[in-house]
Specification:
76% helix; 14 helices; 290 residues; single chain; mainly alpha
């Protein structure tokens, strides 16, 4: 059984690092591949713009990059999740996102729009939504969810863990600004050395920090999912035992109001069966389905 100490940023990062050490070649190569997917195309966009090859070509290249990178992003996340769970994962599994190509693209687009709206409204909501829905790629592939189902599920299982997940993301995001600063210095002083150093730093981040953090988030996804499932079981027990306060507390924590036990019964069904009318009304007020 997972204890509370397994639901901390430290434990996720530790387990993620153990995964990285167990499969360094696969994860370094995977990080390198993601570097090529995410970093090389934007430089191509700049080259196209400098040569004045036209808006249509620029948009075409961007659209192609977005489609491919969306599937690769989803596949990479699931690849890290599988490595965190099992030893015999072929490197070709990194392309798994293409098996659900349309859903991967739609999830990436929805996730980007949600973050964008948050940043437009205020910076803080954008960051909060970025964290809240960051486990959706794992859920999409692991549970075969549709895009919005995965996003909603991520929002549920991250309840109460957003600051801890933010700490994990910082391991990767905090050093990202250094290459940007070096690129800026290189452009400002017309010194390509800064740009070369910035590229090397980015490459190192993609080959070590990025795989480590993605494996850590994969561990967080698994452990948060288990904790969320336990909350659903606790909700059913409380509803069956007519423990109104416990039901209220669990609902406030984001427990799945429609979770089912091994017999296919929900908390609402159990409360109705036992004649606990107040709990029935409480559950319905929180979206319980008949």
């Amino acid at each position: 059984m997972e204890g509370s100490d397994s639901l901390t940023a430290k434990s996720w990062l530790s387990s993620g690092w153990s995964t990285f050490k167990a499969f360094p070649l696969k994860l370094v190569l995977g990080g390198l591949l993601m570097f090529l997917v995410n970093v090389a195309p934007p430089k191509l966009f700049g080259a196209i713009e400098m040569r004045g090859w036209g808006v249509a070509l620029h948009l075409g290249v961007f659209a192609g990059w977005f489609l491919v990178s969306s599937a690769m992003w989803i596949g990479w996340q699931f690849f890290c999740l599988r490595l965190a769970r099992e030893p015999d994962v072929p490197f070709s599994a990194i392309f798994g996102g293409f098996s659900r190509f349309a859903t991967a693209v739609w999830l990436t687009l929805c996730y980007g729009v949600i973050m964008g709206l948050g940043l437009i409204l205020l910076v803080v909501p954008g960051i909060a939504w970025f964290i809240k829905y960051s486990l959706s790629p794992y859920a999409m592939m692991d549970r075969q969810f549709r895009a919005m189902e995965a996003i909603k599920f991520s929002g549920k299982i991250t309840t109460g863990y957003k600051w801890k997940l933010f700490a994990v993301h910082l391991v990767w995001l905090a050093p990202v600004g250094l290459p940007m600063i070096l690129d800026y210095l290189g452009s400002s002083y017309q010194n390509s050395s800064y740009i070369y150093v910035g590229t090397v730093v980015t490459l190192a981040e993609y080959c070590v920090l990025y795989p480590w953090v993605c494996c850590s988030l994969a561990v967080a996804y698994d452990r948060c999912s288990i904790a969320y499932g336990r909350q659903g079981q606790a909700l059913m027990n409380a509803a069956s035992n007519n423990d109104f306060q416990q039901v209220q507390d669990l609902l406030d924590k984001g427990s799945d109001v429609n979770a089912k036990n091994s017999d296919g019964l929900t908390a609402l069904m159990l409360a109705s069966k036992s004649g606990h009318s107040e709990i029935v009304e409480l559950l319905k007020a929180h979206g319980a389905k008949e």
